[in-house]
Each structure stands twice: as structure tokens, then as C-alpha cells.
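User: What would this chain look like folded?
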Amino acid sequence: MDMMRSFVITVMAACAAAVSAAADTELKVTEVGVSRQDGGITVTMAIDPRDVNPGRDREVVFTPVVVSASGTDSVVMPQIRVAGRNRYYSHLRNGDLAEGEKVWRAGSDEMIRYSHTVAYEPWMERSRVTVLRDMGKCCERPRRRGETPVAVLDFEKPVYSMGRTPRYVALTGDSVIERTAEGRAFVDFVVNRTEIRPDYRGNRKEIAKIIESIDKVKNDPDATITRITIKGYASPEGSYANNVRLAMGRTAALKEYVRKHYNFDQEIMMTDYEPEDWAGLREWVAGCTLPHRQEILRIIDSGMEPDPKDREIKRAYPAEYKVILDSVYPALRHSDYTVRYNIRTYVDIDELKRVFATAPRNLRPVDFQRIASTYAVGSPEYDQVYMKAVEVYPGDVQCNLNAANIVMRRGDLVAAAGYLDRAGDSAQAVFSRGELAALTGDLERAARLFENAADMGLDAGAEELQRVRALTDRPTVRYLIGPAAMEESKD
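Assistant: Here's the prediction, encoded as C-alpha cells.
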């Protein structure tokens, strides 16, 4: 019985020693890294075999795995096999490893340098890397002994959001509003004469066009006529010298007729003339389907004097010239008129709102600002005023900047880019371009623009730069093992 007891104690002691030796199989790394690049995720590790002790007859198999945050998707990477002395030599003698597979001997000083890349999948945006740990011995299938979390991955693209307080600039344009009304009349004259005959052919109707345009402005209580210009044109038919006389005389006659109709001062009425409307002829020929159209255009564009040019078209292309003479030249004898006028300045806010509802084109940028100031900043009414302002003043940098900020908040980034192209180069415009870049996902460009705005003296630029850097500098990999995890725990 004593011998049997002694044997049992000895066996139990040996088993205890084996269990103790086999228990030291936790994954310990001296280096670990996880990175995303070139469409893949790479996992690197450095393991010292002296830190792994599965026992002489056993081996431990480490299997890195990328697992989705939900646990529904995973990718298994090649294994790392570390065997005790006897198991290591058994593999070498039997050659029982798969092609390309390697086994390391536990306790050796050959550092295990592991690196493997798997193709990136969308679900890996939020995932984790873990290492499964299996133990086994000869003639025994390895059994799961646990796993070691290595890293948490967050490659999800950071999302930028605009600040809660809308940013607008005050509209300051206060120049007098100048407007123009333009038209064209075809007043007929007796051949080679310059006096106006209202009842000749369709003259009463054509002169009425000019009168109606002037009346529309003159009868507007908010408008003051500052100048009326009439420019007369003759066709290339006939000699150039005679066409000069006709264009000048007929234009002067039409001007005097209109002036006397209203009893305008001489200073208000201005005249100009074009002896022969070659530009109008060229435009018609370029768009017509006449034979020899290109040849006629070359004559028109040539350096010949007007009279030889007209004769050359008639000589070279008589059929086409007849069409031009009958159908085109009459339309080239016309009078273009422009009525220039100023809009008065409105003072009362109720009057400003009335004009906003009925004739917003009569308002200055500063008038739109006064109306907007009666509403809560960022309210629908407030934004409506600014959007109408940019409609009336599409080239005003302040109007475009406010419109850009409004449509950015609505999510229309394409429209915002268009407005910002016309918003100038102020610090606020640079800041808004930074917001647009951030909203489109270009955080690097956004950071540069916010920094530029800050350098230009805009405090909000520095504040927004910090927000963007917080997004771009956030760690995409949080390590749970190794030196990096130790550093994080110290922080």
C-alpha cells in the first residue's frame, strides 16, 4: 500500500507539473500593428517563442481573425503554430504540415515575425481583431482554449456637421439703383429722306413702342429718368457716304420727335448711329441656309471697304443677294433705344416690405438686410429675404455668401459651390468654403481653409479647425494588447 501511495503521489506530481507548464500559452506580443491601406487590412505581430510554453509534447496554434462588430462576418488569417520540443521535432520528422505552413519551437530565440493582409470589406469599417488559441498534442485534434482580443478597428469615415448657429454677413450695398429699359423700333422713311412721318406705313405702331417704354418708366412714382439714347442703323444698300447722312439725320429726327412729345430737356436725350449694320447682316447669314453661305461670310469678314464688299456679294452671288436685299436689308434699318432711370431710396420698413413683395428689383442689398433684420436669424422668412437678394444681385459677393450658407444647411452642396464661386475672398468666404469641403468629406482641405480663415482674423476659423482635427486625428485602431495598449492605459 505504501508503494502504491507513493506511485500515485509521483504521478499526480508529474501531471501537476505538466499542467503548470502547459498553462503558459497566453498570447504575448512584443509588437503589434493593424493598418488599412491599398484596399486591405494588414495585421503584423512579433512573438517571442520564449514567452510560449505549451509543454514538451504539445503545441499551441494562434489564429488571427478579423470579426465584424456584430459578429456576423469574419475573415480567418493564416495560423501561427508554436510547438514544445518533442512536438516540434515530431512535425519535422513526419513532415505533416501543410505546404507553406511553418512551426516554431517554443522557447527558441527565433523571433516570430507575422504579417498578413486580407482584402478590405465594407463590414470591416467597424470590426475587431482577435487571436484564437487552440491546444493539442500528437494524435489529438487541437481544442479551443480561449482567445485574445488584439484591437478594435474604427475605419468609419468621420462625419462633419455644421455648427448650430447660422453664419451670415450683413448686406451693405447702398448704391443708387440704376435700371435700363431697351427696345427696337423699325421706323420707315421715304427713300433718301430723313424727316419723320408718323402715318407713313407702320410708323405709328413702331413709334408707339418707344413711347410705351418711356411711359412705363415715367409713370412709375419710384423711378426718375436720367437718359434716353436712340441709335439708328442703316442697311448696306446704297453708298456708304449716303448711309452716313441718312443714319445721322433719321436718328436726329426721331430723337427730336420723342423729345418734343415729352418736352424733355436736351441733356436727357442722346443719339448714336451705325451707317451700315454689317454685324446684323453677318448674324443673319451665319444662321441661314442660303447656298454659298460660307463664301458670303468670308466676304463680310474681309478687310474690304463697305461699298466694294456689298458690290462683291451682289456680283458673285446674285441669287443670294436678291434674297438678302428683299428680306434682310429692310430689317437692318432700325432704331435701338435705351431708357436709363434711377429708383428712389425707401426709408420706411413697411414700405420696404411692400416693395419686397411687389418689386424686389427696386431694392438695394442694404434694403434686403433691413428687411431680414426684422425676422429671427435662420428662420424661413429670414432665409427667403437673402435668397431673393441673391436672385436680384447674382454678382454681389455678400449675397452669394449668405445664399451659400443657406443652401449648405439645406444639404444642397452643389448649389452651395456655385454661390461660393461668386462669394469673394473674405475671411468669412474662406471659412464657408472650409465648411463645404468638410461636408463633402475633404477634411484635409477643410482644415487648410479653416486655418487660412483664422490667419485672416476670424476666430471661428480656429474653433472649427479644432473640430476638424478632432475628427481627422481620432485613432482608427485601439490596441488591447502589447506595448500600444500599455501606453493607452497609462494615458
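Residues 240-262 form the longest helix (23 residues). If you want, I can go into more detail on any region.
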